[in-house]
Amino acid sequence: MRKTDLLQMTWKNISRTRVFFTANIIAVGVGIILVVIMLSVSTAIKTYSRDLLREETSALAIEISVNPLSFKTPPLTRENLEPLSGYSHVDRVVPLVQGIFAEVSYQGTSKTTISLWSTIGADDPELVRLQWLKDKKPDFKKYHDSYIVVPEQIVQELGISPSANLLDKPVTITVIRRKEGREQSEQLQLLVIAIARQTRFFRCYAPLPIMEKIKKWQNWKIDSLYIPGTSANPYLEPASEELESMVFESALVYVHKLEEVAPVRELLEKKGYRTASILDAIKRYEEIAAVITIV
Hints:
The chain is of the alpha+beta class. The chain has 9 helices and 10 strands. The chain is elongated and about 95 Å long.
């Protein structure tokens, strides 16, 4: 049999089963595309988890909170957090106020919604990992507790270009509280002392004392957030209600090395605290990547 006859027979068979042949070609093509996509997703997840580990300060942080159903666990006050710093392997314990949403505006024109996260200033491990616009690191000593650190994306959403134009400029922060159908708003004027290239979840950082006051105000424990003074150097008026000890919803416990995260978490959980670590997320990502790779 000649090669041409063999080719003709093959073509005739394909022609008779054209639908089946076409379906197989499509199935093979889709299969190859799915394999490529799944392997790409798996690689991306592994890369992302490695990037999270490179954020050393975040990987070394254990977030603790109190189980609301537990009556034996000590509340997260400064007095109760201080002894945790003496635990073996613990580097420092940082009280945390987070999850406060506010509106930021500049010169009464553009505005956008932000998520506020507390900072303890120059010694805050959360800020150490950030890269700064024009390499201008925050100079916390220069300012009173009336500053804010923002990511560059927030500046862009405010329509300010170039972004560096917002440095050392005051912005207005508007916070809201609600209770029994009532709604109130207060405005704080804070100075932008640094612009980060990027922050996790586009967080903005305000001093812990200010965040405490906002939280107490939102919980209806103080009446106002009045700021006397000039916009260049405002400060929060102390209130008698603030003498009450602040009970934090969570705190960050930093250890020295990654391998110390697990034993310290165990100690904290025995004390009754709930713990969370970015290592949990990394482990889940790696498990998902492994399943995708196997499939």
